[in-house]
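Complex record, two chains
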Amino acid sequence: MKTVEPINFIEEKINEDLKNGRFNCVQTRHPPEPSGYLHIGHVRNIILNYGTAERYGGVCNLRYDDTNPLKESTEFVNSIQNDVMWLGYHWHEIHYATEYFQQNYEIAVKLIKEGKAYVCDLSPEELSKYRGTLTEPGKESPYRNRSVEENLELFEGMKQGKYPAGSRCLRAKIDMASPNINMRDPVIYRIQYAEHHRIGRSWNIYPSYDFSHPLDDCLEGVTHSICGPEFEDHRPLYDWVVENSGLKNKSRQIEYTNLYLSGTILGKRNIKKLVNDGIVSGFDDPRLYTVAGLRRRGVLPESLKNFVYATGLSKVNTAVVDRAFLDYYIRETLNQKARRVMAVLDPVKLVITNYEGEDEEIFTEDFPQIEGNTEKHAHYFGREIVVERSDFLKEPIPKFFRLFVGNEVRLKGAYIIKCTGFDEDENGKVTTIYATYDKDTKSGTEGANRKVKGTIHWVNPKHAYKVTCRLFENLVAEEDSESVEKNEAETDGVRINPNSKTELTECYVEKLNYNMDERYQFVRNGYFTLDPDTTADNLVFNRTITLKDSFKMPTL
RNA sequence: AGGGGUGUGGCCAAGCGGUAAGGCACAAGACUUUGACUCUUGCAUUCGUAGGUUCAAAUCCUGCCACCCCUGCCA
């Protein structure tokens, strides 16, 4: 087995194992518990497991860690598979921890026979007391030294459902005085009468994670079991189980650190709460950093992968990656793939006062960033068009070179116009802008060489689609925003932005054959994707992300 | 004497005894029929802290400090 150039400390460890002969191949597993939707934090784990196996020419299995029927469901099983496929990873096989229950059980019996496990009758409360504290050692259970026969009989009784849940459990006999609490005779089997989403009620006893996980790894042929940092001090227990299982394949657990993203709410529990409280519309709400939400927003899987690789892996447990970093990778990909489209999101009417006659068809072909794009885009210039409200200012401010009375600006792909005036309503809101156009400056002609500072986009409503755009604000309140003052909702110390709702607005986009699979850059507005809910007569776009805007309005 | 981890610029992050890579963010400038993109430049005399070893330390040693995880019959 050849080693590969390591890109992180995990691969360094793998190379060690390959070099000293502990393993001669690499097999990993992706072990989600089907108790929630995958989010961007899980993406790193997925990339690590599938990606590492891939790099070493090994395989990675998808294995549902479904040892707790109380929290799991088929809905989550399906969503996980869907998300992994969307990310572009391929599992070798799909397994369920429940497939190994018989083998787990037999190994538990073997442990009992060897005097390494016993049935304990302590109640959960008592068990907790006997466990000791962080600073004090635990006390041995009075049931610790039962005979092998009695243990065997009791365990069999548990399996047959003779005792109520919580009345007894099977514990590994390790060391009640261990400074590592996980080693103080951990519970490895508990009684649970519940409908399991996959195996129904066929088992009355369920192995705990600490017991089944290492076993399943070994059984499946996993060489490297890559998991989160919270299992670091479970490793001695993992090794204990592996060692005492009698299994030949001895898997190795390697921990990595979690991914935290600033200004986001992650964690299955938190996301569920947002969904249940109705703060978001579902697990695929585009404001959520779930894989489903990100996908609906129009983020591409390769952006996510590039982002994860770029953040690297260290063991710094306090690392919080800035959200701007993710944004950068989203834009980077989209910039190469998005089709440029003229659109006006917040329209205000603009009248070309010296334009006469029929609307004029304008062809442009200046979208060179799009691969293989030979199509001509037809625009219709005319007397009445719409432009973006934010491209006009009643009172110009320094360094602003878009529309204001007296200023010239180019309408992208068309003519240079000069703003001559505007109307406003009683509230001071601009209702109409007036301008004249210079007919010698049409794009593509000699006269077009004249330079003006600003270029704005525009749409002729008579020849455009009226569409719906979903815009939204970040779910998490900015640190220093005023909205934080009167926040009502709070999830685990993270302040929810009370203004965060998905807003549907009526906008105009130029006529094109829109394709569900394509990304669009609404020129000067950001990147958009068609929403799955879109219909033939109502196009719904989701804003993926805004463009960078280096023009800053001065703060007064 | 609880155990296990981690500390490099605003945010990630290389570095593994030879005199602080890179990216994001930010700032300035160039280019531009998207103020996008692209390009150019700037941005840690210092690596949690205090000592020690050395010709030489972010890298080795010692003490201290800070933060994260662990007291589910969850994973």
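Note: Residues 367-371, 481-489 of chain A have pLDDT under 50 and may be disordered.
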